Amino acid sequence: MFQKISSYVSTLVLVLALAACAAPGQQPGQMEIRAGVVEQIINTELSSDHHSGIGAVVGGLAGLGVGSLIGAGTGRDVAMVLGAVGGAVAGHEVQKKYDKPIPAQQVIVRVGSGVLVSVTQPVNPGISKGQRVYIEGSGEDARVVPR
Q: Architecture of 29-50+95-146 per CATH?
């Protein structure tokens, strides 16, 4: 008896899970677009898209490679360690030069339903307060573009 009920419950859970997966949603290639009016624009910055630490890793590997070409035996081991440390420090310093924030703007848009939507994106000089715009996409991929 318990096994029969367990089987029915398992089947019901499977059917519900499959039904939830089959529910219509946004398909690949589709983009949500909402219309609205710009209420406010706030200047801000976005962090760069460089991965921190990559400069140190690449520099360390390059220094290790150069150090391996020097000497033999224990001297070679010391040269590899010094090359790796020196390369990592140099790579980190080089990365800091290119790892600067990107100028951006936080655009607050009032959509047709009256809801305020905030989108932070790279600066778009074609957008101004009071302008009618579209919000393309959603989440972190959302962008505000002029109508």
A: Beta Barrel (2.40)
